[in-house]
Design goal:
about 100 residues; mainly alpha; Cytochrome Bc1 Complex, Chain D, domain 2; about 55% helix
Length: about 100
Amino acid sequence: MVVLVMAAWFPGDALADREAGKRKSTVCIGCHGPKGMAVNKLWPNIAGQNPGYIIAQLQAFKSGLRTSSFMQPIAMGLTAVDMRNLALYYAGLGKKCD
């Protein structure tokens, strides 16, 4: 049981599906690029980002703690599982994308 609690805070392979994250990432591509590298300097690169950070930001957008006319509608449609999957996918891309 402790492992599940820890995994919820530090998502990993046990509770997330990288391939599901890749499939879900299609909505992210418009701003963050196909490999997590933003297409505009105004948007952040998310390739190689810490998974816990990605999840925290998505949760903040979903709850309204953080506001963005672009990100809030997207985050509202994500489940906790979607967020973990996306976080694992983008964390695994690394910061250098070919």
